[in-house]
Amino acid sequence: MAKMNGRILRLLFATLFYTVSMMALQAQPAKQRHYDVAAYVWPAYQPDTRFKDIGVFKDGKGEWEAIYNAKPKFSGHNQPHVPLWGYTNEADPKVMEKKIDAAASHGINVFIYDWYWYDGKPFLENGVSKGFLGARNRNKMKFYLMWANHDHNSYLDYTAVDKSKIYWRGGVDRATFNTMIAHVIKDFFSQPNYYKINGEPVFSIYELSTFIKGLGGIKEAKEALDYFTQKTKEAGFPGLHLQGVLWAAIPSGLSATPGDTSSTQNNTVLDLGLKSLTNYQWCHYVPMDRYDRWGDKAMEGWFKFSKDFTVPFFPHVSISWDPNPRYPGKLQGMVTNANPADFKRFLIAAKKYADDHPNQPKLITINAWNEWAEGSYLEPDKQHGYAYLDAVKQVFGVAKK
């Protein structure tokens, strides 16, 4: 009888322990899925000395000069945009500490820096190398580079009516490319908060057509990227994650399958060894319109891209598009009625796209953190305050490192 009572007590204790454990487990909040929310950074809001080479922004504040001199071009035109934080120098680590805190506390955990290499040396690099990487809280966020390898022309000069003047060409030869990537591997990939996918540093290329043309063709471009991958491995990484910016600038190529004469952008992506695609701006593939209609049309493209390409496509959300601060003359095409509510709706759709593609990383890109001269920015302004950042936080929660 005593043995029986002992067994019953042990059974009751085991049952009680299991019940309490399950209740405690169920009481815990569901583990949130991790999303990487990456905002592009346009690093021209700083006094780069090379602005003197091209004779722009003589006030010494970088492109802020175009912003505070902007004028509305029609009644109700939302210009100028006025930053809530003032016209700050983004090459200053103290300035970037505030911006990193704001980004991370509102769900942005990756900055994608527009990065330039002209005439044998970097341009606008102090934003990332001194401002961001000099910030004491830099490890709150990851970052990676998008090589913005377009020709640099007078589009940047807000006083110039003629935008056809070329300051620097974006194409590079093989010797220049080798020098450039040695700098990237040594000074950026080596940073502990450089963004990686499966341990591989991510490096994005803006204009694949310009890259291919500069190297001399697809074969030469592939050889250069293979060399880049080899050097990345020699630096101790398992590989290199090459990402392409998807728009018309990707040329079509022939299939590698014998007898297949089809020419597609996907063939070029595969030939070059790219491992993913995303967009930089919706205006690259959707005509300007009212923001809600513009966004709905742009999101239709996500599913076409997913079908047309055999590498992962990461969904992109743009905030707006209005380049008029850069144009002293007639009104330029623009998106109208941009607002935080529709932006939030598009973010929710991007999150769902990521969830519906479980076999790829949950990366979402946003244009942009600070494209003030193109009217597409997350940074708080005098009109909306923190509303766009709040939308990111409401959808994705606080950023994880």
Automatic annotation (TrEMBL):
Q: Which UniProt keywords apply?
A: Signal, Transferase
Which Gene Ontology terms cover its molecular function? transferase activity
Keyword Translocase part of the UniProt annotation: no
Q: Which CDD domains match?
A: Glyco_tran_WbsX
| Superkingdom of the source species | Bacteria
Q: Which residues form the signal peptide?
A: 1-26
User: What's the protein here called?
Assistant: Glycosyltransferase WbsX
Record organism: Mucilaginibacter xinganensis
